[in-house]
Structures are given as C-alpha cells and as structure tokens.
Amino acid sequence: MALEHAILVSLLERPGSGYELARRFERSIGRFWTATHQQIYRVLKRMETDGWVTAEEIGQEGRPDKRSFSVAPAGRAALVTWLRAPVQPEAVRHELAVKIRGAAFDDAAGRAALVTEVERYRATHEATLARYLTGERRDFPDPAARDAETALQHVVLRGGIAYERMVLAWLDDVLATLRTLDD
C-alpha cells in the first residue's frame, strides 16, 4: 500500500488540510499506517499534480489561509483500482523474535538483559492497546450504529485491538519461558 491510498481513504471520509490529515494519521489512521507531516505534504503535492486531489484555498481570520484537499475523480478511480487488486500476505520480520531464538546461545546475564528488553517492548504494546481501547470508547460509543463507514472503521480498530492482545499474550509467554531457563 502506498501512502497515497491511505490519504485518499482519509479524504473520502472527510476533506481536509494537510495539517488535519496529519492529525488524523496521529489519531486513527496511524493505527495501521504511519506518516510524518512532511511525507503527507509531499504526497499531497504530488497527488495534486497528478490530478488525484483538488485543493481549495480557505481564508482564516488572524491566521494564514489553508488549503483543504478533496478527492478528484482520477483519485477515486485510482483508489477503486487499488481496492479491487489482490493483496499479498505480508512477510513477517520480527527482530525481537530472532533475539529470543538467539538467547539460547547467550548466557544468563544476556537472557536477563533480554527479559528487560521484552518487558520494555511489552509496555509499549500495553500502551498501544490502552490507546486503542480509549479510541474505541470515544469513537464507537454505540456498537449498534452501523453505517458502512463506521462499521468498517470499527472492524479495523477491533483488528488492532485483537493484534495487541495477541502480542501481549505472546510476550507474557516469552517472559515466563525466559524466567524458567535460569532458575
């Protein structure tokens, strides 16, 4: 997937400025696709040149004017083509998993350091899960509200929640295993 596709989806959900898009990436789209402000602005410029988005100048009192982007017909067509193309399963590259396997060839001090690293790694996933659950309560308070856009946004978030819970369970298993090796 290219950043262009994530931006098109976001703009179809709601037109906005580059700044607003960056905020959306931080708040929701970033759950599954990250981008810096600079990347978003650079790609928006290219998409505008390619005719995928259009920009409208919006005057703001006391602040510089902003440009609000929306999806042009060519952008929608490009997105539909991408949406209908098959998706290849992603290859898993997990540096921590390789370190865990390699711990068999380290000593007790090395494995103790790995426990500390796994605990740190686990804390980041715990914080991510907490953010996702907070976002779910905030953004989807009524599970019965089921327009297509809301239902599909929520199912993606539920996938992120399930993934984080799976990673946490696995990390708990890793820690339990590491702690029994040197007892």
UniProtKB/TrEMBL annotation:
Alphabetized InterPro entries for the sequence: Tscrpt_reg_PadR_C, Tscrpt_reg_PadR_N, WH-like_DNA-bd_sf, WH_DNA-bd_sf
One family name in Pfam for this protein: PadR
Keywords: DNA-binding
Domain Transcription regulator PadR C-terminal: from-to ranges: 92-179
Coiled-coil zones: none
A GO term, aspect molecular function: DNA binding
Domain Transcription regulator PadR N-terminal: 7-79
Official protein name in the record: DNA-binding transcriptional regulator, PadR family
Organism: Micromonospora citrea
